[in-house]
Write a structure and sequence with these properties.
By secondary structure, this protein is an alpha/beta fold. The chain has helices at about 10-15, 30-40, 45-55, 70-80, 85-95, 95-110, 115-120, 125-140, 200-205, 205-215, 245-270, 285-305, 330-345; strands at about 145-155, 175-180, 185-195, 220-225, 235. A five-stranded mixed β-sheet has the order 3-2-1-4-5. A hairpin with a 5-residue loop joins strand 2 and strand 3 (about 185-195). The termini are far apart. Keywords: Cytoplasm, Hydrolase, Metal-binding, Nuclease, Nucleus. Its cofactor is a divalent metal cation.
C-alpha cells in the first residue's frame, strides 16, 4: 500500500497556518532609519529594486503564501549587508532559514541576469572622453580609462583536496578583478577565479585584457599598482624613480589608484558578507562568485542613487592579499609610452 508523502512548508511548521508572517515586515510599516540600519538601504532604493526585479521574483505558485518580491529583496539585502548567517536575518524578517536561503538565491540570480545593464566598459567616443577628462582632472595623468586591481573574498573550502582556492595567506578565497572610474563606479567585475591565481596572471587571463588588447588599446590605458606588469595599455608606477619627474608621476599615479582602494573599502563596508570579519561565504565557489557580483551590481546602483559610502578609514580585510611586486618589464613599447607620459606631463 502506497503511503502518501506530504511536502512540508518550512514557514508553516515554524509559524502555523493562517499566520501571515511573510507580510509582517512591510516597507509601509517601518521608517527609513529602520530600513537603513537593518537592510542597509532606504525605502526609495528598495522600491527601485522591487520595480527592477519584480518580474523575475514573482514566480507562478500554487501556494497562497508565496514570498513577495519586496520581502525577498529585503531578505537578500539583509544578508548582503549584515554579513551574518541567514538564520538571524530570517528571524528579523519572519521567515525560515530555508526560505531565507531561497530569497538570497532568487535575488542574486535576478541581479546577475542584469549585470550588463549596470557593469560595463563604455565604448562610445563621448563616454571614453569623459573618462579621460575625469581622471586627468583628478591627478593629471592623461589617457586613463580606469583603475584595475584585485580583491580576495574568503569562502568555505570547496574540497579538502582542492588547493587552487588557497591564497598566499592560507585562506580559501576567490580573487576578484575590478576596474572602476573616478567616482568608484565599477566598469568591470570578474569574480570567479580561484584565490591561488596571482593578480597579474588573473588579468592576463581575463576578458578585460582581451578587450584592451583588441579594441581599447588605441583609446587609452588602465592604471594599476606594482602587482601588475607594465603594458602599452596598463600604466604602473616606476619602481625605482630616479628623477623628480618620475617621483611626480608616481605621486599622481598613487593619487589616482587611491580611488580603487576606497572603492574596495566601500564594497567591504557596505556588504559585510564580503569583508571576511564575521565569517566566510558559506557557499560553493560558483554561488559565492554570483553573490559577490550581485553586491557589485548593487554598489553601482547605489552610486546611481547618490548613496555613497566611501570612507578613508581602513576596515577589516582578511581577504586582502599581500602585494606581489614584479621586476620592471622588458616591454620596450610600454616603457617608451610611460616615459613619454612622464616627460610630457610631469617634467
Amino acid at each position: 500500500m502506497a503511503i502518501p508523502i506530504t511536502v512540508l512548508d518550512c514557514d508553516l511548521l515554524l509559524y502555523g497556518r493562517g499566520h501571515r508572517i511573510l507580510d509582517r515586515c512591510r516597507l509601509d510599516d517601518v521608517t527609513d532609519e529602520y530600513l537603513v540600519s537593518t537592510y542597509g538601504f532606504p525605502r526609495s532604493f528598495i522600491d527601485y529594486l522591487v520595480e527592477l526585479l519584480g518580474s523575475s521574483l514573482s514566480r507562478p505558485t500554487q501556494r497562497s503564501r508565496a514570498i513577495s518580491p519586496e520581502t525577498q529583496i529585503m531578505a537578500a539585502l539583509g544578508f548582503y549587508t549584515s554579513g551574518s548567517f541567514q538564520t538571524r536575518m530570517g528571524d528579523t524578517i519572519g521567515i525560515s532559514q530555508a526560505s531565507m536561503s531561497r530569497c538570497v538565491t532568487n535575488v542574486t540570480e535576478a541581479l546577475v541576469e542584469r549585470v550588463s545593464q549596470f557593469i560595463h566598459f563604455p565604448r562610445e567616443e563621448g563616454s571614453i572622453q569623459r573618462l579621460k577628462d575625469g581622471f586627468y582632472s583628478l591627478a593629471g595623468v592623461p589617457g586613463v580609462l580606469g583603475i584595475v586591481d584585485c580583491m580576495h573574498v574568503t569562502i568555505k573550502a570547496p574540497n579538502a583536496e582542492d588547493m587552487s582556492y588557497v591564497n598566499q595567506r592560507g585562506l580559501h578565497s576567490l580573487n576578484c578583478l575590478f576596474a572602476c572610474d573616478t567616482q568608484g563606479v565599477l566598469l568591470w567585475a570578474e569574480t570567479h577565479k580561484p584565490g591561488s591565481i596571482q593578480d597579474n596572471t588573473l588579468l592576463s587571463q581575463s576578458e578585460l585584457c582581451c578587450l584592451f588588447e583588441t579594441e581599447l588599446h588605441k583609446e587609452g590605458w588602465l592604471i594599476a599598482d606594482h602587482a601588475f606588469l607594465l603594458r602599452p595599455w596598463l600604466m604602473t608606477p616606476v619602481q625605482i624613480p630616479g628623477s623628480s619627474s618620475e617621483y611626480r608621476y608616481n605621486m599622481a599615479h598613487s593619487a589616482t589608484h587611491t580611488v580603487m582602494e576606497r572603492t574596495q573599502r566601500a564594497l567591504r563596508l557596505r556588504f559585510r558578507c564580503l569583508d571576511g570579519s564575521k565569517a566566510t561565504l558559506q557557499y560553493s565557489p560558483e554561488k559565492a562568485s554570483q553573490i559577490i557580483l550581485a553586491c557589485c551590481i548593487l554598489h553601482n546602483i547605489a552610486l546611481q542613487h547618490g548613496l555613497d559610502i566611501w570612507t578613508d578609514s581602513g576596515g577589516p580585510g582578511l581577504e586582502q592579499e599581500e602585494e606581489c611586486v614584479h621586476m620592471e618589464p622588458v616591454d620596450s613599447e610600454a616603457y617608451r609610452m610611460r616615459q613619454e607620459i612622464i616627460l610630457t606631463h610631469f617634467s
